[in-house]
Amino acid sequence: MRNVWTVATNTLREAVRDRVLYNLVFFALLMMAAAILVGQISIGIEQSVIISLGLSAISLIGIFIAVFIGVGLVSKEMEKRTLYALLAKPVQRWEFLLGKYGGLVMTLAVNTAAMALGLYLALWSVKHPLERGDWYVLVAVYLILLKLALIVALAMLFSCFTTPFLAILFTVALYIAGVFAEDLRTVRAVDLTPATMKTIRGISYLLPNFENFNVMGAVAHGKAIAGSLVWHSTIYAVLYSAIVLAVAAQVFSRRNLK
Amino acid sequence: MPSLAIEIENLSKEYPFGFLHLKKKKSLEDLTMQVQNGEVFGFLGPNGAGKSTTIKLLMRLIFPTAGTARILGKSIEDVAMHQNIGYLPEQPYFYDYLTAAELLDYFARFHGLTAADRQERVQRMLKKVGLDTAKKIQLRKYSKGMLQRAGLAQAILHDPQVVVLDEPMSGLDPLGRREVRDIILELKKEGRTVLFSTHILSDAEMLCDRVGVIVGGKLRGVGTPGEMVGIASSGMEILFELASPELRFPLVEKAVKTGETYRVHLDESELYPALDQLKAAGARILSVSQLKPTLEDFFMNLVDADRAQANAVEVSGR
Q1: Quick one: three-class SS letters along B165-193?
Q2: Which of A40, A214, A69 is nearest to A151 (CA)?
Q3: Which of A4, A81, A195, B34 is deepest in the core (most CB within 10 A)?
Q4: Is B17 on the interface with A (CB under 8 A)?
């Protein structure tokens, strides 16, 4: 695991030295300021507006980073040939892949934590002390991070066998399909045969179910989040990501670098 | 330690191309060769001959269509073997957000070196390749030559037994090329094996114990630079100056004038009559030397033959 950790920490260092990340944090803080403004003109619902807007910003910015930087993790190294000298060291290709993945997830964790802090500051500015229900925001942030980790895995998988442009397209398409996975399971259409319905339902179970990680509505209204939901979502994200990364490693292990 | 540092057996590489990847282009064809332990081996060939393909196959950056290779007796598939090899890619490019010292430290970590050992080696290597004054500058500000030096440093940082350098002189000024030559000779002195690719023949003649010439994906010959070009003389060369520029005699008509110096190429049988002519004219003889074919002549003959064959195939429509 030493090699994985070395690649991961270097990936984190790359992200930290990349000014795009700082701009995104700045953007998140700007969103918080907007939330405060909205809170001031929405009497009585400041808290839910700030939480909804804040969590949406954290999620959107995170998705943007996960997709665009996630796709670039491997493809940029191949394109710039920075990978050549590294793979001549005693490093397995899967170690490189896992390290890059870990590095970006760590980056997202740092970034998300910074944005969550901004959200709490915004919340505290309109209401203090904070109540017990406000701490469920942390649960929502944690679930967003799990979602982002899964998106990074998918972005890496696609970038292992196709062009960066197509990898971005596939990842975004799969994300949108995954958001509606739950709806596909309960879809009722009169003009579809039972066999087609079964196929659609089967596909819906294969898709990553991103709605598992969405508790924004409940948290914005101060509702408690069940511990079982957190556990199930954690296990789901870890298992799904592990499977996706295993397939990515398999594809990448025999990829010719030109 | 095995006597062979690198063993390559029937290594071939084909790349699919065209619609649905149905067509195939052969980049390397049935390559078999060995590099002895402790020797400097030059891999020669024009651009696109298959040199980098062979090196990338050895470094497992690409995978062979057929054949096998071993380094220090171990299969190239064995990642642990990479502990004992160093590699400089062609036109290297590294993480440009790192400084040279950070880059070397990063690579050293994969060899399991301790922090103190890493620090000592990084400083030593930066000094060796002449980057110690630029060690705190990010690589994005480095010139091509400086990147080449950083690449060389990372290749030899961990004291590898086998060093593989892909076009190590490329992008370097004369001073840089000389320093790389010195490093290669130093590695040889330390008993390490060096395989390097180049199309600069004078470097190969100067450094290599043996060379392998590859053209069109096929190995055309392996041997010492002397063996490759043969020892047969291809004539004599006389350099001379005339006492008076107005003097005219048959040898002067045949010679090429550069400044005040005349240069003439002759068969060996024509040497003494030519010297008689020069003596009679009171000319000053600067040098008389035997002409031998150079590695460049050998190389160019192979390339010309290959092109002629390619044209013949094209004309016949095969």
Answers
A1: EECCCCCCCHHHHHHHHHHHHHHHHCCCE
A2: A69
A3: A4
A4: no
Contacts 24+ apart (CB under 8 A), B224-228: B225/B295, B228/B295, B228/B298
CA distance B58 to A31: 52
Q: Is the Cβ–Cβ distance between A118 and A32 less than 8 Å?
A: yes
Query: Using CB atoms, which residue from B61, B79, B83 is nearest to A92?
Result: B79
Q: B295 — phi, psi (to 5°)?
A: -60, -30
Instruction: Give long-range contacts, CB 8 A cutoff, 24+ apart: B133-136.
Output: B134/B100, B135/B99, B135/B100, B135/B101, B136/B99, B136/B101
Q: What is the pTM of this model?
A: 0.83
d(CA B295, CA B229): 6
Interface of A with B in 27-86 (CB under 8 A): 80-82, 84-86
Find the CB nearest B62 among A85, A88, A256.
A256
What domains appear along chain B, each with residue ranges and CATH number? 4-228 (3.40.50.300), 236-290 (no CATH)
List Cβ neighbours of B53 (8 Å cut-off, separation of 6 or more): B13, B27, B28, B62, B217
The span from the CA of A122 to the CA of A110, in Å, is 19
d(CA B260, CA A10): 63
CA A250 – CA A246 distance, rounded (Å): 6
**Each residue's pLDDT expressed in tens, for chain B with a length of 318 residues:** 667 899 999 999 988 877 777 788 888 989 999 999 999 999 988 888 889 999 999 999 999 999 999 999 999 888 888 999 999 998 888 888 999 999 999 999 999 889 999 999 999 999 988 888 888 889 888 888 888 889 999 999 999 999 999 999 887 888 888 888 888 999 999 999 999 998 777 788 888 999 998 888 888 888 887 777 665 567 889 999 998 888 888 888 889 988 889 999 998 888 999 999 999 988 999 999 887 666 677 777 777 777 766 665 444 444
Q: Is the dihedral of CA B234, B239, B245, B246 positive or negative?
A: negative
Q: Decide if B25 touches A, using CB distance below 8 A.
A: no
| Contact criterion met (CB < 8 Å) for A257 and B61 | yes
Give the separation between CA B255 and CA B85, rounded to whole angstroms: 52
Secondary structure percentages of chain B, helix, strand, coil, to 5? 40, 30, 30
Cis amide prior to B89 (ω within 30 degrees): no
Shortest Cα distance from B226 to chain A (angstroms)?
Answer: 33
CA quadruple B308, B309, B311, B316: dihedral, nearest 10 = 140
Q: Could you say which DSSP state residue A127 is in?
A: S
Q: What is the ipTM of this complex?
A: 0.84
Q: Which amino acid is at B196?
A: F
Q: Does B151 lie at the interface with A, CB-CB under 8 angstroms?
A: yes
| A155 CA: distance to closest CA in chain B (Å) | 21
Residue B274 CA to residue B280 CA, distance in Å, equals: 10
